Amino acid sequence: MKIGNVELKNNVILAPMAGVTDLPYRLLCKEQGCGLVYTEMVSAKALFYNNKNTELLMRIDERERPVALQLFGKDPQLMANMAMKITETNPLIDIIDINMGCPVPKVVNNGEGSALMKNPKLVGEIVKQVSSAINKPLTIKIRKGFDESSINAVEIAKIAQENGAAAIGVHGRTREQYYTGKADWDIIRKVKEEVSIPVLGNGDVFTPQDAKKLIDETNCDGIMIGRGAQGNPWLFKRIIHYLETGELLPEPHIEDIVNMINRHIEMLTTFKGEYTAVREMRKHISWYTKGLYNGANIRREINYIESMDELKNKVLELIV
Question: What's the CA gap between 66 and 39, in Å, rounded?
Answer without folding.
Answer: 11
